[in-house]
Amino acid sequence: MSKPVNLNQFRKQKARAEKKARADENAVKFGRSKADRQLDRARADKARRDHDGHEVEE
Q: Distance between CA 37 and CA 22 in Å, rounded?
């Protein structure tokens, strides 16, 4: 005889798996790695510092 299955748990596991699959697809489509975001932030900070360094003070 097979073990009884809790259908609520099965339904929830299936929903979680579908959500994770959709999230993985979106991460590939729209996501950027943490390293990419940090690199962009560092470049923007450097550009801001360079621009501020060229101000003319009167």
A: 22
Cα dist from 47 to 13, 36, 51, 54, 55, whole Å: 47, 17, 6, 11, 13
What secondary structure does DSSP assign to 4-56, as a single string? P--HHHHHHHHHHHHHHHHHHHHHHHH---HHHHHHHHHHHHHHHHHHHHTPP
Q: What is the pLDDT of residues 3-52, one digit of tens each?
A: 888 999 999 999 999 999 999 999 888 888 889 989 999 999 999 999 98
Indicate yes or no: pTM above 0.90. Answer: no
